[in-house]
Amino acid sequence: MTLQIGDPAPDFILSDQNGKKCQLSSFKGQRVVIYFYPKDNTPGCTKEACNFRDNWEVFKDKNIKIVGISKDSASSHEKFIAKYQLPFTLLTDPEPCPIASAYNSYGLKKFMGREYMGMMRHTFVIDPNGNLELIYWKVKADNMANQIINDLGIS
């Protein structure tokens, strides 16, 4: 079943770049942006992460938590964060990617005629009550953060 605006956000516990457990429901009372992305250090994923980094102050000032999720390892996330000075948390959802699947963000992809299972580039804004406020199924990696800021009317 596809998630819809207003649905409760599926709760999860995943490990961050430091191996520390992070639970979505622990952020109740504040907005959370969760963005699923295919792979650390790839062109589109780097553009997306840096767009969130470059708009970090706007989100921080509004007490909005940013969380990126991919199937990369904690050590890969740690290097990605260090290389691009990312000020937010990256979580690991290892294959078969149960959390990404719960968010309809893991499935069959096609690249150069080849089909494979992979992480989709989707973004979700969760309201302070833990419900889906905004859903982006079609993400432009280089301006996702700007789009959210515009759609929420914050700056």
In quaternary terms, these chains amount to single chain
Query: How big is the Rg?
Result: 14 Å
CATH level 1 name: Alpha Beta
The percent range for helix content is 25-40%
- Beta-strand fraction estimate: 25-35%
> How many domains?
1
Describe the biggest sheet? 7 strands, mixed
What CATH calls the topology is: Glutaredoxin
- Name the CATH superfamily assignment: Glutaredoxin
- Structural class comes to alpha+beta
Which second-level CATH architecture applies?
Answer: 3-Layer(aba) Sandwich
Mean pLDDT: 97
Q: What's the tally of helices? A: 5
> What is the tally of beta strands?
9
Separation, N- and C-terminal Cα atoms: 34 Å
* Net shape: globular
H-E string: EEEHHEHEHEEEEH
Uncertain runs? none
